[in-house]
């Protein structure tokens, strides 16, 4: 679950600021549909066919594994991103060992594979509170049943070392992970609202910060000027030569259907990039993410998709395209936290900037990536798409056949494949 963490003060300032520009909902209408963007600038998502808030997905041994906020951190697996998703236990067997807030229902897990073990970073917090922690659990398998809860790696508000900068100014939620490509050093990313997103080098075993009493942290994204600082839920990928810092900006949840925030103030998925793992990250207009910058990659669209966020990216290997995945609300279904659904789109990169594309063929992505401009799909590509589907079906039954697998890879079919991990 993501984290409405507006402090009461910020919320009041926000509400006051919002009044002059807020669209007037008609008194009789149940829902103020004027606040829903009908833009076609972003494609509709492919349906994940599963409820999810703050989804996190890894690929392992022929399956996608989905981790999400929920009681004890539920785990699901599926052969494809479209499901069907099978529940395969939970990360925690009981409440987290971190003694603060509601330890039963951690938020926003991020799981990584690191030296043949799985590490799940999760958050313990409560809406509007900075008394939070990032915890970590580890296991030799991504399914439930054999995870060990190691407790907090970062505390803010209260708890061990919460008096050390930057824990004094930040909020320990929404953990994410990146390996420095030059040094191999692991970094924990975390944070929301207050002082934005931070990156901190971790110990090689991933169970603590590298230098706990002097964390050597770097602020990656921040909104210095506005009263409300609604950035959270970061994720980082590397695609040569850039690190991409993804995050959500805006109001995530607890929407009042009679008065939505002004259009554009709800969640959207933004990105900045840098050649350095610790930044500075800049957006497409050259604005620094430390100065409130961030290019919108995916926002509300078609009058259907509302407040997409909780972003993650599956890095494609070889000719596979990257996959952008996220949760969103469907305006014809509902606006409660439990109504959030998993959606996904392939990405292509134009001049090194990610663009979400329509449809389920990564060929659209890879073909345009090679020459940096958007191509219309042609009949050859469509036949190739069919071929690649056939290969991927075959792959189900021959997952150990590396020749077939390489064929599938080279034909650009990413959805059905697994066994590549993002961080190993
Ligand atoms: C903690 O969260 C669980 C699961 O959402 C809920 O059932 C329980 O009532 C919560 N406990 C408290 C003290 O809020
Ligand atoms: C559970 O994990 C422990 C330690 O990581 C390992 O030794 C053991 O084989 C695992 N058990 C199962 C059933 O996978
Ligand atoms: C990356 O950032 C760190 C500090 O954040 C700095 O020491 C280093 O020189 C930077 N590297 C490059 C290539 O800019
Ligand atoms: C980005 O920079 C331009 C000018 O360089 C400015 O007009 C714009 O407001 C900035 N956007 C953000 C989000 O800071
Ligand atoms: C939104 O919900 C409608 C009605 O259930 C459904 O037909 C449509 O496919 C959904 N769209 C998305 C993007 O979830
Ligand atoms: C490729 O993208 C176009 C428009 O962006 C879309 O209409 C088409 O369905 C996509 N092709 C495939 C095979 O998904």
From TrEMBL:
GO terms for molecular function: hydrolase activity, hydrolyzing O-glycosyl compounds. SUPFAM superfamilies: Arabinanase/levansucrase/invertase (SSF75005). Pfam families: Glyco_hydro_43. InterPro entries: GH43_arabinanases, Glyco_hydro_43, Glyco_hydro_beta-prop_sf. GO terms for biological process: carbohydrate metabolic process. The active site is at residues 54, 232. The keyword Chloroplast does not apply. The record marks 174 as: Important for catalytic activity, responsible for pKa modulation of the active site Glu and correct orientation of both the proton donor and substrate. Gene3D superfamilies: Glycosyl hydrolase domain, family 43. Keywords: Glycosidase, Hydrolase, Signal. Residues 1-18 form the signal peptide. Pathway: Glycan metabolism; L-arabinan degradation. Belongs to the glycosyl hydrolase 43 family. This is Endo-1,5-alpha-L-arabinosidase.
């Amino acid at each position: 679950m993501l984290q409405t963490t507006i402090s009461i003060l910020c919320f009041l300032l926000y509400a006051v600021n919002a009044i002059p520009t807020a669209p007037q909902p008609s008194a009789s209408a149940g829902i103020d549909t004027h606040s829903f963007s009908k833009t076609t600038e972003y494609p509709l998502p492919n349906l994940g066919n599963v409820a999810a808030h703050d989804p996190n997905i890894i690929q392992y041994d022929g399956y996608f594994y989905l981790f999400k906020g929920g009681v004890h951190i539920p785990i699901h697996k599926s052969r494809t991103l479209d499901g069907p998703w099978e529940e395969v236990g939970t990360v925690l067997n009981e409440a987290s060992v971190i003694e603060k807030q509601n330890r039963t229902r951690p938020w926003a897990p991020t799981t990584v594979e690191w030296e043949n073990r799985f590490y799940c970073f999760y958050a313990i917090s409560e809406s509007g509170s900075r008394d939070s922690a990032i915890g970590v659990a580890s296991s030799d398998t991504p399914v439930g049943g054999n995870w060990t809860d190691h407790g907090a790696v970062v505390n803010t508000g209260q708890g061990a070392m919460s008096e050390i900068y930057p824990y004094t100014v930040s909020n320990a939620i929404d953990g994410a992970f990146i390996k420095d490509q030059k040094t191999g050093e692991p970094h924990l990313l975390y944070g929301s609202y207050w002082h934005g997103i931070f990156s901190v080098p971790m110990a090689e075993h991933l169970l603590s910060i590298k230098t706990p009493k002097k964390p050597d942290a770097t602020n990656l994204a921040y909104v210095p000027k506005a009263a409300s600082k609604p950035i959270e839920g970061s994720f980082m990928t590397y695609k040569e030569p850039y690190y991409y810092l993804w995050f959500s900006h805006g109001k995530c949840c607890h929407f009042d259907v009679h008065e939505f925030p002004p259009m554009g103030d709800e969640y959207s998925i933004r990105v900045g990039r840098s050649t350095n793992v610790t930044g500075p990250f800049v957006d497409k207009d050259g604005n620094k993410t430390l100065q409130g910058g961030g290019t919108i990659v995916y926002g509300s669209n078609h009058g259907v998709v509302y407040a997409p966020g909780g972003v993650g990216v599956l890095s494609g290997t070889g000719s596979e395209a990257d996959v952008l995945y996220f949760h969103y609300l469907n305006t014809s279904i509902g606006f409660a936290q439990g109504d959030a659904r998993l959606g996904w789109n392939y990405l292509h990169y134009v001049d090194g900037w990610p663009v979400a594309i329509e449809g389920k063929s990564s060929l659209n992505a890879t073909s345009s990536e090679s020459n940096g401009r958007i191509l219309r799909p042609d009949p050859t590509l469509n036949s190739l798409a069919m071929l690649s589907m056939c290969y991927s079906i075959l792959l189900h039954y021959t997952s150990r056949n590396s020749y077939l697998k390489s064929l599938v890879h080279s034909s650009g079919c990413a959805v059905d494949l697994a066994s590549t991990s993002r961080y190993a």
